[in-house]
Design brief:
single chain; 406 residues; alpha+beta; six-stranded mixed sheet; 28 strands; 18% helix; elongated
Length: 406
């Protein structure tokens, strides 16, 4: 029996790339960006007004000019038709390019505007100095060209999820085609003669196949689907045939049949089919009977207990981290917060229990769970908290480690 830390290390040591592929930007959301990205030009690509106001020459202000004739209005995306001379200015909108003959933008709130003098006074004008919230200086209220990034700068240097922020950045950089990590081929086999699919008649001693749909949901959370799904009963010959059909996949997940009962044939059959065992049994609850090995083709095989919460815990602590490592993502480290309620330990093992991060200051609230077979699966939990093997009862306010489920 290994610890959960040892199990993770054994699994992550076998991480391997599944290759890359190019997709259109619209299909990249949630995928893992697989190549470095550099700036295609300066950002901002031009001196940009950060306020609605008036663009003029700082030298005029410095020599005491306070009234300026408005010669042109510049909107975002447009360029001026002419140039300004002493005592003249542009009316300019946020995001517009500041002409090279102007080097300061006075925000609209700091001027007296909208006045129209006589023809002799030069037409429309504005007067500076109604208020001066900060000292005037060259480039005030102007984002200078290249102050964020310069052409060729490394913007993203390591694999990362295409989150909304990353998607916006990729679009800004003009990337209509994105190179992403290819997903693994994933197979799922659920087992048990007592298991029936939802929507079909269920007998008094039968249960519905929740593991199938829970793990489909977990895979979709990783923006992956199943390449193969099969259900097998408890007959060893039938189960061996189903297992053999799926061993060429990058990842195979089997649920049920891994404990010590008369119908728990999965570990023996996998070994007979050439899967090299890495470990059998983890010193944790739930999920103690978990078996893991490497197929003849180098794929990873995870054989999990049949209890739903055990499957969820194993996916969060072993399978998802393995997929992330294959994609080159950094492993998420557990964080800690105080428990809002105390907890007593049931076993001498590491125990994982469902919690929700909430409140201000933040804390961990335990979600109802009556053992690993509870169909509620820690409903509304967004994390798994750890009650360490060596710890006794945890009192309210005790800081505990937790692993995110979202």
């Amino acid at each position: 029996m290994v610890s959960i830390q040892e199990a993770r290390e054994l699994v992550l040591a076998h991480a391997r790339s599944f290759g890359t592929e190019e997709v259109e930007l619209g299909a990249a959301f949630g995928r893992v960006l697989a190549v470095p990205v550099r700036a295609d030009r300066d950002y901002p690509p031009f001196p940009r007004a950060t306020m609605d106001g008036y663009a003029l020459r700082y030298a005029d202000l410095d020599r005491g000019v306070r009234r300026f004739r408005i010669v042109e209005t510049i909107f975002a995306g447009s360029q001026p038709l002419g140039r300004i001379s002493g005592g003249e200015c542009y009316k300019i909108m946020t995001g517009a390019a500041v002409p090279e003959d102007a080097d300061i933008v006075i925000q609209r709130e700091d001027v007296r505007e909208g006045l129209r003098g006589s023809a002799q006074e030069g037409g429309e004008w504005m007067e500076v100095g109604v208020r001066e919230p900060e000292p005037w200086r060259p480039h005030l209220n102007i984002a200078r060209q290249g102050e964020d990034l310069q052409a060729g700068d490394l913007v993203i240097g390591k694999p990362c999820r295409c989150s909304p922020a990353v998607m916006g950045l990729l679009a800004t950089l003009g990337l209509g085609i994105v190179t992403v990590a290819r997903g693994p081929g994933v197979g799922l086999i659920t087992t048990g003669g007592e298991v029936v699919e939802p929507g079909r008649p269920v007998g008094p001693v039968q249960i519905r196949n929740s593991n199938h749909w829970m793990l489909v949901g977990a895979m979709r959370g990783e923006f992956l689907g199943l390449s193969s799904y099969k259900h097998a009963g408890d007959d060893p010959e039938q189960l061996a045939g189903v297992l053999k059909e799926c061993l060429d996949l990058d990842i195979l997940i089997v649920t049920g049949g891994v404990s010590a009962g008369d119908a728990d044939h999965v570990p023996r059959l996998l070994t007979e089919l050439g899967v090299r065992p890495l470990f059998h049994k983890i010193a944790m609850r739930p999920g103690k009977p978990t078996w893991c090995g490497v197929s003849p083709g180098g794929g990873m095989v995870f054989a999990l207990p049949g209890n739903p919460f055990s499957c969820l815990v194993n996916f969060a602590l072993l399978i998802a981290p393995y997929i992330h490592a294959c994609w080159g993502l950094e492993q998420s480290e557990p964080m800690s917060l105080p428990l809002r309620e105390g907890r007593r330990k049931r076993t001498s093992l590491d125990e994982f229990f469902p919690v929700r991060v909430e409140g201000s200051p933040a804390g961990l609230s335990q979600m109802p769970l009556n053992g690993s077979g509870d169909i509620r699966l820690g409903l509304q939990a967004d994390a798994l908290a750890l009650h360490p093997a060596g710890a006794g009862a945890l009192g309210a306010g005790t800081d505990v480690l937790y692993y995110s489920l979202v």
